[in-house]
Amino acid sequence: MKTRAITSRILDALSDTPVVFVNGARQVGKTTLARSLAADGFGGSNDVSYLTLDRITTAGAAESDPEGFLESLEGPVVLDEAQRVPGLFRAIKLRVDSDRRPGQFLLTGSANVLTVPGISESLAGRMEIVTLHPFSQGEVHDRPEHFVDACFGNALPPVPVAKGAVDTQAVVHAGGYPEALERTSNERRRAWFDAYVSTILQRDIRELARIEGLTELPDILALIAVRSGGLVNYAELSRSSGLAASTLKRYLSLLKMTFLIRELPAWSRNASKRLVRSAKLFVNDSGLAGHLLGSDSLTPVAASRVWGPLLETFVLAELTRQAGWSRTMPKMFHYRTSNGSEADIVLESSRGEVVGIEVKAAASVGGRDFNGLRSLRDAAGPLFSRGMVLYSGDELVHFERDLVAVPLRCLWEW
Questions:
Q1: Of 82, 114, 132, which one is at a domain's C-terminal end?
Q2: Model-level pTM?
Q3: Is 65 helix (H, G, I), strand (E, B) or coil?
């Protein structure tokens, strides 16, 4: 079993919080990690029970009498796929209200608990939520990653000596889903992604929505893949999908709830303005996005058109994964002005420090590639830490004191 970098954060949460909820997309390794933590006694000498609510009998018992079900459990317990029995959350609330000991429950789920009505409210102040993503590149290669924290450091680390050529396109197309990475051919990987998307759309989303007739969702997901990294435009998506805007927004909410897509909000120095500016829309994993685009079978000309957005999707996914276990734990945004200046990704620390990141597929970088980052620097003022252009070259090159070109591989080698 590969070491998951988020493990230490989960153990820290279990040491001082009654309930810890590990959520994330299906097939990212939540069950494997939860079983490992249970076997290890949550990092101590605890005797931890493991139950999965994917089992019909277990779920039925929990649903029929949530409080009685919990009373039958002794000691710390892992409840896998806990969102399948929403009534359990109120019973857990009553339990921890009378006993505030930390580390009583480790819950896992394949739906974003913050978007499931009634669940997050039930355990407000009693539960810490940790998101497990597909593998980062560091996790794939069993090495620690510190890129996010390095972005906010006083000086950037040197570029590590290359240990061989990196096939960036192969890395991006593979993505981070554990089972997809085990497939050695494009054909087998396509088969896995087909089954994966079908399972989520036909099972998980239907259960969450409690309605039939979600046949449009595969087409909507494909439309989003084509636009991954673009600004959300509900009117255009509504026209392209043939769906009413209200229906479209509901479907997008379901896709976000199951971690298939995510929105990246706009950054503004005035935090209140972030709520009214257009977000960017991304597929959650570059391997999944590439599959939806069929990019491994496109003509060279067609593939070149989608490579830039696909690379940006990959970089955002890697940064999101690393941010979850970094010391800085920054919030993430994009930057765009009315006159067209933009930066692909903005990292903002809890102290308000700002790092801008631009993603370039080219092997060389020029001064004009930093124009969007200069605009961000002007907007952020003294809170601007640095701007970075990630590119496919091999040298770290300073264009100005706080503007630097950085090899893409530093994303997972720092």
A1: 132
A2: 0.92
A3: coil
